[in-house]
Amino acid sequence: MMLDVLMSVIEELKYCPVCKTSLLKEEIGGEPRMACGSKTCSYVYWNNPTPVLAAIAHRENEVVLVQGIGWPEHWFSLVTGFHEAGESAEEGILREVKEELGLDGEIGSLVGVYSYFQMNQIIIAYEVLLGKGEIKLDASELVDYKVVPTDKIKTWPSGTGYAVRDWLQGRGRESEEISFDRLKKNKPQ
Prior knowledge:
By secondary structure, the chain is an alpha+beta fold. The chain folds into two domains: 14-47, Ubiquitin Ligase Nedd4, Chain: W (Single Sheet); 50-185, Nucleoside Triphosphate Pyrophosphohydrolase (Alpha-Beta Complex), CATH 3.90.79.10. The chain has four helices and nine strands, in the order αββββββαβββαα. It has helices spanning 2-11, 89-101, 159-170, 180-185, and strands at 23-28, 31-36, 44-45, 50-59, 62-68, 79-82, 105-116, 121-130, 142-149. The strands form two sheets. Strands 4, 5, 6, 7, 8 and 9 form a six-stranded mixed sheet that branches. A three-stranded antiparallel sheet has the order 1-2-3, with helices on one face. A hairpin with a 2-residue loop joins β4 (50-59) and β5 (62-68). The longest helix is centred in the middle third of the chain and has 13 residues, at 89-101.
């Protein structure tokens, strides 16, 4: 099903961004891809995953979770953002923490790398130790945050939820995983 959705998005591309020739569906590398129809242009739309950075932003035994604009009001996740050109992943996640929470941070460790197929992303997750100060949310991206004691945090069965699970296990802790069905059922009325 995901491939069908992906192909419908890819098929909306009509013209080569390099030479403006019509794109044609071809099998390249064993997959259906959109490629330039011109014999003098070698453009192929590869649809590679987008790198996203994630922070398990915490102070001692509390983790900060954020709620993005447009999310259901009971859904919270890690601070995340796109990896930008010209910065290391570590610089990028510290930039995102500063932008979204208004706080400086320090890289603790790389937690892991996770596929997030639903959004065609690859998530690079770090532990980030938050500096002192008051959280000041970026209102252009976030609507709320909550501070959760480490022993109360629950994981979720997707991208950043796996990072939280692995981070907790690295600290010798196990956590209950909340299913998305349960999240939907528990939503406020």
